[in-house]
Design a protein that fits this description.
Layout: E1 2-3, H1 5-11, H2 17-28, E2 35-40, E3 44-51, E4 54-61, H3 65-68, H4 73-76, H5 81-94, E5 104-108, E6 111-117, E7 122-123, H6 124-130, H7 134-153, E8 156-158, E9 166-168, H8 170-173, E10 180-181, E11 187-189, H9 193-206, H10 213-226, H11 234-245
Helix pairs in contact: 7-10, 9-11
Length: 257
């Protein structure tokens, strides 16, 4: 088991190392009777656990058939999906990007298990479906843009930066902080302009049809303020967005009409 002691101490600030290790082991060993499954498919399982005054999420990631042939070597060499997610969270945190930071990672029965704190919030797409206040939406768009700018300014792109991987907690809903990034296994080094354009386009595509031009412009302008190298990418971002949705000129003006 690999443990991030700093992340663990946020849950157990007064515990000793031995006590933290025991808490983590107990949570990873929790059976179905003490957990609530939030999501499950053939390759992954996400379970919510509340015990001893803390709320956590345990994510189980099963390898593909090709990776199974490696017999756990991908985990040992730290290039499995679980380790990519762990490493992505570390890179985002180092870049000053809000994210859900894992507490521990281990390997059991051929699958990666990741222990993370549970966050009370909604995904971005679910939040936008309920949020009708235009000023609150605009403030959130600005925070998302600043977050995108911090990612690209750090020389990174997230190939899976979609609305369901952005968690809106209370601070983000009030426009006082950007969303929390979850599932950052798709984080890569920024190499080509089109990678950045596709990241913006993916987020806009998955945010739903309620996003206005004004909100899209606020997002882009705030990103450019943080990372001025994005200024020249506006045509590429617009083209990538139109290619995905067929909606022309989302960045034509800031009117929101």
């Amino acid at each position: 088991m690999h443990l991030d002691l700093n992340a663990a101490r946020r849950l157990w600030p007064k515990a000793t190392l031995e006590q933290i290790q025991q808490h983590v082991t107990d949570l990873l060993n929790a059976d179905d009777a003490h957990s609530t499954v939030l999501k499950q498919d053939t390759r992954s399982r996400v379970a919510f656990i509340q015990a001893n005054g803390v709320s956590v999420v345990v994510k189980t990631l099963r390898p593909s058939r090709r990776r199974m042939l490696l017999g756990g070597l991908d985990h040992a060499l730290r290039f499995s999906q679980g380790w990519r997610e762990w490493r992505g969270a570390r890179q985002l945190a180092d870049a000053g990007v809000r994210c859900v930071e894992p507490i521990a990672i281990t390997r059991r029965h051929g699958a990666d298990l990741i222990l993370m704190p549970a966050i009370d919030g909604k995904t971005l797409i679910d939040h936008l479906a309920d949020e009708r206040d235009p000023e609150r939406r605009l403030a959130l768009a600005g925070q998302i843009g600043q977050q995108l700018g911090r990612i690209t300014a750090a020389g990174l792109i997230n190939r899976d930066h979609k609305s369901r991987n952005l968690l809106i907690d209370e601070a983000a809903a009030d426009g006082k902080a950007p969303p929390l990034v979850i599932d950052p296994a798709g984080l890569r080094q920024r190499r080509r302009p089109r990678q950045v354009a596709k990241m913006f386009a993916l987020l806009l595509e998955t945010a739903g049809q309620t996003v206005t031009r004004r909100e899209a412009m606020r997002c882009l302008h705030e990103a450019q303020w943080i990372d001025p190298t994005l200024i020249g990418l506006r045509p590429l971002i617009d083209a990538a967005y139109r290619a995905k949705l067929g909606r022309a000129h989302v960045f034509k003006d800031a009117s929101g009409r």
